[in-house]
Amino acid sequence: MFKIGKSNKKQPQNLKEVLVELDTLTKKLESVSGELKALVEKSKGFVQRVGIVRFSPFPEVGGDQSFSIALLDENNNGIVLTSLYSRETSRVYAKPIKAGQSSYVLSNEEKEAITRAQNINSQPPNPKPDDKNNKSK
User: Fold this and answer.
1) How far is 44 from 32, CA to CA, in rounded Å?
2) Per DSSP, what are the bridge partners of residue 55?
3) Which among 62-66, 75-79, 84-88, 125-129 has the top mean pLDDT?
4) Fewer CB in a 10 Å sphere around the end CB: N or C, the chain?
5) What's the number of CA atoms in the CB half-sphere (13 Å) around residue 67?
């Protein structure tokens, strides 16, 4: 009667068995719904927003090999990582972010990475003016 999935389980033969099966399925659905609700709540703390900015902080080094990347959760909590590359050395800095702000002084690039992460779900990135796929010309 109800051939959903592959099961060796005996199919209900009368209304009473159908109602028992319906009750069993209802309980399973409630259990799965509860698990889903718990996962949704737990996922609020997962990294959900990422913003990255590449730049060249030193005039003698080209190629935008330095970067700042913001990794934020649903509440704009997380970290911003910055890597500064030069020919002699490379340095990495990490700063905590709480509600989109840091207790440490942020560079313009770090602020931009955070802004990009916060806006990731609200708008598509702007194409560069020299982008060959830019159709707004």
Assistant:
1) 19
2) 66
3) 75-79
4) C
5) 10
User: What is the token pair recorded at 111?
Assistant: 């602020």
- What is the residue-wise DSSP string for the chain? ----S---SPPP-SHHHHHHHHHHHHHHHHHHHHHHHHHHHHHTTS--EEEEEEE--STT--S--EEEEEEE-TTS-EEEEEEEE-SS-EEEEEEEEBTTB-SS---HHHHHHHHHHHTTTTSPPPPPTT-TT----
Integer Cα distance of 65 and 85 in angstroms? 6
From 87, 70, 90, 88, select the one nearest 79 (Cα to Cα): 70
Lowest mean pLDDT among 47-51, 71-75, 107-111, 124-128: 124-128
**121 band by pLDDT with thresholds 50, 70 and 90:** low
